């Protein structure tokens, strides 16, 4: 049964294991530095479908199916799936998983969905509500641009702080069985809004939430950044990562610089890939990075303790037009290996 | 120490790389200028083939709109515009692109509620306020000439 530690952290005494995981990505992500780590690279952005949304559903289902088969089970064995994406009504997810027949709970955590779904799955397994729980998420550059920004062929310029929504999906199968990668603790974050209004600078909007979550987790667990091999944020990008490190020092007096990495900066080649701006973003960004190189490194023993902090900007396509600020959220999952 | 909203705004501004206004301005000037020169060249050609002044004034924007629409459909326009910026948006080429791009994007939702309903999603405000401004100008012009 999960036990509360400190004010916000939940300890999972059974430390649910990660039995299988998979990441599938689009062409641009496949050309990035992690290209070889992914399970499959879709050269066709449409994935053989007739719309971007349907394409996202295909890659989402593919990631889930691959994670399930790598875990050595079938979809019928899974007790629950927690999943979500960026689209209205979680369209990419719903239509992706509808044929799998797994009890489905749709989640919206914006780009933090990988950590949110993983936390929910782990809690379910630890509390014995489920023996096998699946967590998954996806994003697609074209469907996200269509919903949140401008049509793809519209001739606008991107600002340097804008991030590139990853075409990617990641999925994890969590079970009570022994595993080389285990989920020990989770923390459901609190919304932080420091008044950023620019939807093209989401790193800045999310950094305070990441700061809050990391500081809460360290305080609850009475640990310091040195106790972790990596503190991995979701998709803060270059601007948000810099702001996070500054905030951690100024606000919390904690220096995470030596162990901090960001999925948004790991996914693309920041100097040579065109238009990536301040880095990758989208649910699939942290989903694909976690479910490829990071979990592999944890299984291999290269990383022993990783605090994965998925970050999300909880804006809608309407809220900036109503002059609303952008609320940020971050959820933490402590994964340990070896 | 808690950081306040105003203080964080300053931190965020400092951490955010600024848009390269000089470079963007130069590209916009060069490519926008090229488009205008091309329009002038079209004018000379149309005059050369014997069209009268009014027909020439009509044919230049029509030609530019058609070219911009075709380049948008071919997926080339946005690649030029990411360098040209205002250079392609401000001339009538930007107007063509702003109509063709959503028309393409929303094809998957059908001809009526997809393409038809969303075609003027970006250009709509220009049409609404452009027409309104023209009406006001017309009324003022009429009163002054009474």
Quick description:
The complex is a heterodimer of chains A (338) and B (146). With 338 residues, chain A is of the alpha/beta class. Helices cover 33% and strands 24% of the residues of chain A.
* Helical amount of chain B: over 70%
Tell me the β content of chain B: under 5%
Gyration radius of chain A (Cα, Å) is 18 Å
Average pLDDT of chain A: 96
The largest sheet of chain B, given as strand count, sense and whether it forms a barrel, is: none
Number of helices of chain B: 8
- The CATH C-level name of the largest domain in chain A is Alpha Beta
Strand order of the largest sheet of chain A: 1-2-10-15-14-11-12
Find the CATH superfamily of the largest domain in chain A: Stage V sporulation protein AD
Work out the oligomeric state of the chains in this entry: heterodimer
What string gives the helices and strands of chain B in order? HHHHHHHH
Low-confidence stretches of chain A: none
> Helicity of chain A, in percent?
25-40%
Number of strands of chain B: 0
- Number of contiguous helices of chain A: 9
Instruction: Assign an overall shape of chain A.
Output: globular
**Any idea what the shape of chain B is?**
extended
Sheet-strand content of chain A, in percent, reads 15-25%
Structural class determined from secondary elements of chain B: mainly alpha
Radius of gyration from the alpha-carbon trace of chain B, in angstroms: 21 Å
Any idea what the CATH architecture of the largest domain in chain A is?
3-Layer(aba) Sandwich
Describe the structure.
The complex is a heterodimer of chains A (338) and B (146). With 338 residues, chain A is an alpha/beta fold. In chain A, 33% of the residues lie in helices and 24% in strands. Chain A has two domains: 3-175, Stage V sporulation protein AD (Peroxisomal Thiolase, Chain A, domain 1); 181-337, Peroxisomal Thiolase, Chain A, domain 1 (3-Layer(aba) Sandwich), CATH 3.40.47.40. Chain A has helices at residues 27-30, 52-70, 91-97, 113-126, 141-148, 202-221, 237-252, 263-266, 283-300; strands at 3-5, 9-11, 17-26, 40-42, 80-85, 104-106, 132-139, 164-165, 168-175, 181-187, 230-233, 260-262, 280-281, 305-313, 328-337. The longest helix of chain A has 20 residues, at 202-221. Chain A is globular, with a radius of gyration of 18 Å. Chain A starts with a strand and ends with a strand. The model of chain A has no long low-confidence stretch (mean pLDDT 96). Chain B has 146 residues and is mostly helical. Chain B has a domain at 20-119. Chain B has helices at 5-15, 21-48, 53-73, 77-84, 86-89, 92-105, 111-118, 124-144. The longest helix of chain B is centred in the N-terminal third of the chain and has 28 residues, at 21-48. The mean pLDDT of chain B is 93. The A-B interface holds A 50-53, 146, 150-161, 194-196, 201, 204, 208, 239, 242-243, 246-247, 250-251, 275, 278 and B 1-3, 5-6, 8-9, 11-12, 15-20, 24, 72-73, 75, 77-78, 80-82, 84-85, 88-89, 94, 97-98, 100-102, 104-106, 108, 121-122.
């Amino acid at each position: 049964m999960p036990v509360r530690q400190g004010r916000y952290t939940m300890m999972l005494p059974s430390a649910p294991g990660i039995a299988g995981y998979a990441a599938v990505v689009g062409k641009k992500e496949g050309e990035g530095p992690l290209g070889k780590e992914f399970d499959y690279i879709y050269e066709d952005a449409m994935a053989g479908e007739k719309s971007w949304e349907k394409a996202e559903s295909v890659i989402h289902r593919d990631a889930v199916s691959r994670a399930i088969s790598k875990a050595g089970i079938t979809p019928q064995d899974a007790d629950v799936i927690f999943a979500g994406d960026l689209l209205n009504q979680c369209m990419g997810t719903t239509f992706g998983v509808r044929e799998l027949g797994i009890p489905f709970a749709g989640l919206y955590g914006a780009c933090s969905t990988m950590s949110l779904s993983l936390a929910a799955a782990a809690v379910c397994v630890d509390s014995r509500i489920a023996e096998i729980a699946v967590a998954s998420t996806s994003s697609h550059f074209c469907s996200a641009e269509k919903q949140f920004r401008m049509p793809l062929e519209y001739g606008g310029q991107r600002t340097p702080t804008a991030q590139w929504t990853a075409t990617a999906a990641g999925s994890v199968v969590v079970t009570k069985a022994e595993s080389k990668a285990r989920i020990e603790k989770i923390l459901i974050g609190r919304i932080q809004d420091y008044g950023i209004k620019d939807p093209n600078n989401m790193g800045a909007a999310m950094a305070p939430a990441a700061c809050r979550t990391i500081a809460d987790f360290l305080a609850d667990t009475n640990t310091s950044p040195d106790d972790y091999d990596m503190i991995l944020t979701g998709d803060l990008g270059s601007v948000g990562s810099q702001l996070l490190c500054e905030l951690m020092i100024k606000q919390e007096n904690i220096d995470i610089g030596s162990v901090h990495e960001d999925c948004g900066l790991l996914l693309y080649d920041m100097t040579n890939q065109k238009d990536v701006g301040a880095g990758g973003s989208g649910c699939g960004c942290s989903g694909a990075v976690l479910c490829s190189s990071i979990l592999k490194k944890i299984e291999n023993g290269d990383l022993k303790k990783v605090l994965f902090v998925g970050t999300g900007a909880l804006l809608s396509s309407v809220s900036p037009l109503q002059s609303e600020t952008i609320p940020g959220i971050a959820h933490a999952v402590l994964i340990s290996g070896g | 120490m808690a950081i306040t909203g105003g203080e964080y705004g300053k931190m965020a501004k400092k951490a955010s790389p600024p848009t390269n206004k000089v470079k963007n301005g130069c590209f916009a000037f060069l490519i926008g200028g090229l488009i205008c020169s091309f329009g002038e060249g079209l004018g000379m050609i149309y005059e050369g083939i014997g069209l009268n002044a009014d027909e020439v004034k009509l044919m230049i924007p029509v030609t530019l709109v058609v070219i911009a629409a075709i380049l948008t459909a071919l997926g080339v326009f946005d690649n030029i515009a990411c360098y040209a910026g205002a250079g392609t948006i401000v001339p009538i080429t930007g107007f063509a692109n702003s109509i063709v791009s959503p028309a393409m994007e929303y094809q998957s939702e059908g001809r009526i509620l997809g393409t038809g309903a969303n075609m003027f999603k970006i250009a709509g405000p220009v049409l609404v306020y452009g027409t309104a401004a023209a009406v006001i100008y017309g009324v003022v012009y009429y009163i002054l000439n009474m």
